[in-house]
Amino acid sequence: MVSRRHFLQNSSLMLGAALVSKVEAASIPEAAVMDSSRTHTPIFPASGRPYQPVVTLNGWTLPWRMKNGWKEFHLVSEPVEREFAAGMVGHLWGYNGQTPGPTIEAVEGDKVRIFVTNKLPEHTAVHWHGMLLPCGMDGVGGLTQPQIKPGQTFVYEFELKKSGTFMYHPHADEMVQMAMGMMGLFIVHPKNPRFMAVDRDFAFLIAAYDIDPGTYTPRVNTMTEFNMWTFNSRVFPAIDPMVVALGDKVRIRVGNLTMTNHPIHLHGHTFEVTGTDGGWVPKTARWPEVTTDVAVGQMRAIEFHADAAGDWAFHCHKSHHTMNAMGHAVPTLIGANTRDLTAKIKQVAQGYMPMGETGMADMSDMNMPLPANTLPMMTGTGPFGSLEMGGMFTVLKVRAGQAAGNYQDPGWYQHPKGTVARLVEDEPAEPVHRHEK
Ligand SMILES: [Cu+2]
User: Fold this and answer.
1) Ligand 1 center–CA 208 separation, angstroms
2) What is the pLDDT of residue 365?
3) Distances (CA, A) of 409 to 160, 197, 404
4) Residue 420 above 80 pLDDT?
5) Domains and CATH numbers, the chain
6) How far is the CA of 27 from the centre of ligand 1 (A)?
7) How many angstroms is it from 296 CA to the middle of ligand 1?
8) How far is CA 367 from the centre of its chain?
């Protein structure tokens, strides 16, 4: 039997993630749990080194406590319920009551001690994606540590060597556990709070789920045909807008833990990629962009000056990813005359409605009855009508006079007179056909 004394003598040699002994268990910090999917206002640190906190889109930051120079956190892997948008809830797996799990925020040079309690029905392990740490803290179940069995608590200890944006996710039954929603952000702020300082700093993870209409649990064996494309496990119109003040320097950090790449696109501004999960990009290596591809297992931090007031779309540019639940096997009916067919089908299926003869835009206005627990493929209403979006879409709201630290939705943008595309009442002239000689 390992005595307490023996345990202490050897503890300095323990460089790997370790099972927490009964003696230690008594001193594990309380695990905070969140039951809301709203965006929480950033928390400025009450202890430890100062930093500018991030805003986790539809998420929150995990509280910590200081103990003998260590910043202690407590993650709990467990089944959770997450509302994707009003009308649809997923039965998922996550951390501390939500998926994604809470954002961990700390500062370069901090020594962190992270307790992980496993309340899942199977074993897990937590990998700290992008972090420079002792190999035994890397969280690869079976390779660098024993798996964390249900009911067990493990502890990870490491020093934060560099600032940047990192992620945490299981490295145990990975396909299932990530398809179920297990992931979170790990932000390491620079030791010098003025380094890379911005006025507003948003962060979220991209996750994809395949949940059949009327069901609650994702199909975990799906490889590419997902039907819920999410920012922080929320879909449009339930992803909160990113509210900034005109003139703000803004950073948006996007991590991708899905099975495909996502070209993230911002309207009305040009940005530069200033960070990856490998670290900050040197100024001389940046170039202007309006879309940046975030590949699988990557993080991209983009930065821009919010110098144009308005409601600017911010979305994945894969058009199927700005849709909610949809069938991909539906034939295209554009240009087809389905009137005879419709009459015949109506004889056997009352209320049958043909769709898509002129495109699919009218679907967003149909308000057809849906099965329980699903969302319309296209939805959302803006000041000018139906938005015909879903999935990975939100709005960057740039407003003059938005107070520092105020993230409240200011409502729709009031366009200055004469600056909105308008209907032309005159009959257009006959088109002139050009003939090649
Ligand atoms: Cu996408």
Assistant:
1) 9
2) 58
3) 35, 24, 13
4) yes
5) 20-192 (2.60.40.420), 207-322+392-399 (2.60.40.420), 339-387 (no CATH)
6) 43
7) 11
8) 28
